[in-house]
Amino acid sequence: MIGPALTGFATGFSLILAIGAQNAFVLRQGLARAHVFWLCLLCATSDAVLISAGVLGFDAITQAFPALPRIMALAGAAFLFVYGATRFVAAWRGDYQMQLAGKTLALGPTLATAAAFTWLNPHVYLDTLGLVGAYSTNYPDSADKTAFGAGAVLASFVFFFGLGYGARFLAPVMQSARAWRILDAAIGVVMWALALKLLS
User: For position 127, what pLDDT does the model report?
Assistant: First the structure.
C-alpha cells in the first residue's frame, strides 16, 4: 500500500500547490501569525472530507444534481469578488496599525472566511472530488484505494501547516504598511482573476 499512498500524496500535493484563494488567505494569516493552527486544521480537515467523498464516489451527486457545479461557481465568484474588493480597499487605505501591532480579527470571523474560501470554491471540488476521485478509480482494491486517499489527505495537512507556519519566515519583510499594501493588492488581483475564471 506504500505505492498508492505515495501516489496519493504526490497527486494531492501537486493539485493544492497552485496559488488560489484559500492558499493566499492562509499565507496572509500566517504572516500575521493569527489563529494559524485552527485555520490550517480547518482547511486540511475540509480537504480530508472532500477527498474522502471523492474517493468514495462523488460523480453520483453531480449526476443527480447537474446544476450544482454552476450554482457553486456563481456563488464562489461572488464571494471572491467581494473579498478581493475588501483587499483593494485595505491596500488603498493603507491602515495597517492592527497588523503591525500584532492584532487581527477574532477566531470566529477568521474561520468563517476560511470556510467560505473552501466550500464556495468550485476548484476545490474539482481537485478533491473530481480529479482525486477519478484517479482513485485506478485502484480497484479497497485497501489500495484507501491508502491513495490517505496519502492525498496527508498532503493537505503537510501543505497547509507548512504554509501557515512557514509564512512566519517572511515576517521580517512585512514590518511596514507598504509591504502589507502590496500583499493585499496582490491578493485582490488573485481573487478577481479567480472570480473571472469561474464566470468564464
Answer: 73
